[in-house]
Automatic annotation (TrEMBL):
Keywords: Cell membrane, Lipoprotein, Membrane, Methylation, Palmitate, Prenylation. This is Membrane-anchored ubiquitin-fold protein. The keyword Lipoprotein applies. It is a lipid-anchor. May serve as docking site to facilitate the association of other proteins to the plasma membrane. InterPro entries: MUB, Ubiquitin-like_dom, Ubiquitin-like_domsf, UBL3-like, UBL3-like_ubiquitin_dom. Residues 8-74 form the Ubiquitin-like domain. Its main location: membrane. The keyword Membrane applies. PROSITE patterns: UBIQUITIN_2. The lineage of its organism: Eukaryota, Viridiplantae, Streptophyta, Embryophyta, Tracheophyta.
């Protein structure tokens, strides 16, 4: 019985309302590994997908999940129903945004 509870069914909701999954993950799976799975399964027809794990933010139960945490540590007792599917929201932070901030900082330093 504990083997079943150590597995979580997770689907990833993209910003356009489409989903990746659901897929079963062990509770010991790291958030970084979930993000790698998202990168591997990202729909090819979607424009401006994430390039690296750093481009992806996962949100579950209103909290941004940290890469070094495990799925089991991030479980919410209020939202997770045994045998149910957990939905995590995926936000892509484009790398161009970070470059734009660097340019603004460079300009500010020269003024």
């Amino acid at each position: 019985m504990s083997g079943v509870q150590d597995q979580l069914e997770i689907k990833f909701r993209l910003t356009d309302g489409s989903d990746i999954g659901p897929k079963s993950f062990p509770a010991a799976t790291s958030v970084a590994t979930l993000k790698e799975s998202i990168l591997a399964q990202w729909p090819k027809e979607k424009v401006s997908g994430p390039m690296t794990v750093k481009d992806v933010k996962l949100i579950s139960a209103g909290k941004i999940l940290e890469n070094n945490r495990t799925v089991g540590e991030c479980r919410s007792p209020l939202c997770d129903i045994p045998g149910g599917v957990t939905t995590m929201h995926v936000v892509v932070q484009p790398p161009a945004l970070e470059k734009g901030i660097g340019i603004v900082q460079d300009i500010a330093q020269t003024i």
